[in-house]
Amino acid sequence: MKLFGTTALAAACVLGSFGRARADEGRLLDDDTFAFRPSSCVVLDGGVVGGAPTALATGFAKGVVAGISVGKLLTWGARASYVSASEDGEAWAVTHREVRVVATGGVQHALGRGVVGLRLGAGGTLVHERRLRHQGMRAGLEGDELETTETALLPTATLEAVIGLHVRGPWMLQLSAGPSLGIVDGEPRSAWSVALGVGWHP
To answer: What is the per-residue pLDDT for 109?
Structure first.
């Protein structure tokens, strides 16, 4: 009887070990599923952006943004974005497009999976604005009475708070938001923007 009990116990242990091994092979999640790679010195990111237009007094501009950042505690890099906005007034339909390119510098700190920082930018915003008078063609208007376009390069400065979260491997989510300042017709004009995107450590 003692021998039978010992044999049964040994068989149970072997079957239990086999069952655990098969269960581990079939698991969808393991300890490495959400492991992230330590941050390299270079981060490439891209995403969507929205905010107030630089030179248009009203409206909401939306588009895309991309950038590169180099460094760990102190960072430097560049960012480029394209946004557009459309507004209808009493007399005019306005289409507003902006291409912004800035050089950036900032400071950041890693907190576990997260990264928080501040980013300053300086550069220019190329603004193209088209105004089309409502019912102008039906009224027989031509030239500037019907449509006007204007293109200008505006000096621009930006300040953004940046939050990043490592998700898996070299990939991370990034959120940034903050004000910007442009010089329009010799006068400073403030705006704001919020961007959400994905970052990658090459």
So the answer is: 93
